[in-house]
Amino acid sequence: MDYYEVLGVPRDATAEEIKRAYRKLARELHPDVNPDPLTQDKFKDVTAAYEVLSDPEKRQMFDLGGDPLGGAGPGSGGTGFGFGDIMDAFFGGGGNQGPRPRVRRGQDALIQVELDLQETAFGTVKDITVDTAIGCPTCHGEGTAAGTDPVTCTMCQGRGQIQSVQRSFLGQVMTARACPQCKGYGTLIPHPCPECAGDGRVRTRRTVSVKIPAGVETGNRIRLAGEGEAGPGAGPAGDLYVEIHERPHEVFSREGDDLFATLRVPMTAAALGTTIPLATLDDQIEIHVRPGTQSGSVETVKAAGVNRLRGHGRGDLHVRIDVVTPSRLDARQTELLKELAELRSEEAPTGFEEQPRGGIFSRLKDSFGGK
Ligand SMILES: [Zn+2]
Ligand SMILES: [Zn+2]
Q1: How far is the CA of 204 from the centre of ligand 1 (A)?
Q2: Predicted TM-score (pTM) above 0.70
Q3: Read out DSSP for 116-172?
């Protein structure tokens, strides 16, 4: 489960935005408003997402591909009550549901992978190390030590719930809450498996090969079905999402499938015209700087950009020419330039120029300058 998606907030959402999103959803989905089971499930997801994202430590763990709630289930030998119990206790959840099954689907996992522009542009295969739960190989997910079985809980007689009558300002209310002895399962494991302490799964580190298609960019996610967390009781695994993060390239900046770069050309070369050898992402090309090239003009190299994701062809490479005015002149150079200025009657500079109409080149220039 992607908690950001559940709350509908961006990955860089502030604490305040997360709180606001949660409040809004909680109002819509609260069991008092919408008692049907589907909405209640959604409400639990939303609350779980808030529990994680509102806690800086858990949020960081999730951002790093971890599963802050997955390890807190019953029997994991850690924090005691599972999250479902807490919610059930709050909302009297599932008043007439039976005991909770020990076998459940696992959570989705998210992992981030850093890629170079080369890799996002042309695709690659990455070996990624993931820490997830898998079904316990010792007990095959049963959670019991060899030769033993679960027994019916004595406190709830296997119902998984304890009913009690409470006085409130509304009068007497019958509430059902998860049985504290069996944590809602209806059974107890008197002799837990020593390997997994009864959870039916263990954490492992594995290497997963991920095929990265050409043309992906930062924020894209690749879904690997069934590669996420195994569920409690060795339940079916959730999915693994691999989120792409592209490292900034030292020369090229990227916008969609197009690349942008800046080429510095001396004033004299810009005036006389020249040819400059240039390394694109995957080729050696030559850029022809026409005589009289102005600073800020753009040369487009067709199909030298990034491969299009789900499509054919490539984006373009836009090379902005940056004409460099010499800043230190010796006596001889000064003399030559003065003579040139005289020949061209350029000793007196001209005044303001009219604003150019916004055309394609000014837009291109903006995209250079704005980055
Ligand atoms: Zn086990
Ligand atoms: Zn019980």
Answers
A1: 13
A2: no
A3: -HHHHHH-EEEEEEEEEEEE-TTTTT--BPTT---EE-TTTTTSSEEEEEEEETTEE
